[in-house]
Specification:
About 65% of the residues lie in helices and about 0% in strands. It has 13 helices and no strands.
């Protein structure tokens, strides 16, 4: 059993924000993590101008711009010092707090990631990173808080994308706890659609792992076959395939 976050969840933490709409055409909060690199978007500069004292704006923007390029290159450890400096200058910037939280998450700084992403949620009202909050709590061994955050999310207006990611994290947590049957009730997919989203593929993968742990090899094989049809190189399927032999 391991408290280390699921690798698929860690890879999806900022990918969720690259699309501004889910299948229900829900508009999500804009995020600088969807910007590949280069100059900061106008809306980011405007947010810093609104939330930051005049004498701190330019240095905050400079640190944020450096961090953006590092973040886009997945150099999260390099981005952290710049983002911490930006936070000291612009603590009410949701963009700074979001990028700092995600960079901390990618580098295993679970307490800092949890603190920053909760602050981001408080500033924006956006629940997009609650699955990452759950994964941080899982890594910290705070089992009761994982369940509490899962239950809270069920009462909020989350998108389908967030719902898939939350199920991936919570089912993985339950599997860590040896509760494969409970995990199956959380992660079992509905119809295996012909054109699944990345979040649905991650859900299928975790569902296959859970089914195998619960002793349902037939369900695990069906899910593995569906994954193979969509993405035969999906990370982890080789190990899963070997376990089914």
């Amino acid at each position: 059993m391991s408290n280390r976050p699921d690798r698929h969840q860690r890879k999806s933490a900022d990918r969720r924000r690259r699309d501004t709409h889910d299948t229900g055409q829900r508009r999500e909060h804009r995020t600088v993590t969807s910007v590949s690199s280069g100059q900061l978007p106008k809306w980011v500069r405007e947010e810093i101008l609104r939330s930051t004292p005049k004498d701190r704006r330019d240095p905050a923007l400079n640190h944020l711009a450096k961090a953006l390029n590092q973040f886009a290159d997945e150099r999260y450890g390099a981005a952290l010092p710049e983002l911490r400096k930006a936070k000291n200058l612009a603590p009410r910037s949701s963009t700074v707090r979001e990028m700092l939280g995600l960079s901390a998450y990618h580098t295993g700084q679970w307490e800092e990631a949890l603190r920053e992403l909760r602050t981001f949620r408080r500033l924006t009202g956006d629940v997009i990173h609650m699955p990452v909050e759950m994964d941080c709590l899982r890594a910290l061994g705070r089992a009761g808080d994982v369940t509490k955050t899962w239950n809270l999310l069920q009462d909020l207006d989350a998108s389908a994308t967030v719902g898939h990611e939350a199920r991936v994290v919570y089912a993985s947590f339950l599997l860590d706890q040896g509760k494969a049957v409970d995990a199956w009730h959380i992660i079992k997919p509905g119809r295996l659609v012909a054109s699944p989203s990345p979040g649905e593929l991650r859900r299928w993968f975790v569902a296959a792992r859970v089914a195998l742990a619960a002793g349902d090899k037939d369900a695990a094989k069906r899910l593995l076959a569906a994954l193979d049809e969509q993405d035969p190189d999906f990370e982890g399927v080789d190990e899963l395939r070997a376990a089914l032999l």
